Task: inverse folding
């Protein structure tokens, strides 16, 4: 069997992150981290669909809380569901690009996951918003797992090689 890649030390200097010679040799086969990352992005898209279903179920009470007229309510719901549908399709497209070895898609998804995690943290600490299974726990957990999978050395080396 081949040589196992060296695990990253907790006290590794930041300069080694940019050293291409320190990267493991790119594999011909897709690393598990890339496959898992793409699967997690698909799961994140499915989480968006579940969130939309939850929105539909709660729309009556949301509409009452916001005191929306029936015309305004339909427009607002359409805009929200349209955005969610676009977001879900974008996530599925990015998952496909990651699966195929797209480094740009990998980086874009990691930036999006970081922004989502940061927004959840700000909402929790500044606004006192609860993180529950019914609100953001599922998407937050998936974003963290996506970051862990797609930021691995194997994923970075394989996607960089695929574009080189």
Result:
């Amino acid at each position: 069997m081949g040589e196992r890649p060296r695990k990253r030390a907790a006290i590794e200097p930041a300069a080694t992150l940019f050293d291409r010679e320190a990267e493991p040799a790119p594999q011909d086969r897709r690393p598990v981290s890339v496959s898992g990352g793409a699967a997690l992005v698909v799961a994140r898209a499915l989480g968006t669909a579940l969130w939309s279903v939850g929105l539909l179920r709660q729309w009556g009470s949301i509409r009452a809380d916001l005191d929306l007229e029936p015309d305004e309510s339909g427009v607002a719901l359409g805009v929200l569901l349209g955005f969610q549908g676009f977001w879900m399709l974008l996530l599925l497209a990015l998952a496909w690009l990651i699966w195929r070895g797209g480094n740009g898609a990998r980086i874009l998804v990691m930036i999006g996951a970081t922004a989502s995690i940061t927004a959840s943290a700000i909402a929790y600490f500044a606004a006192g918003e609860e993180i529950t299974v019914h609100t953001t726990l599922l998407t937050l957990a998936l974003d963290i797992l996506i970051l862990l999978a797609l930021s691995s050395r194997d994923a970075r080396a394989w996607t960089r090689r695929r574009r080189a």
Q: What stands out?
A: The chain has one domain: 31-163. DSSP finds five helices and no strands in the chain.
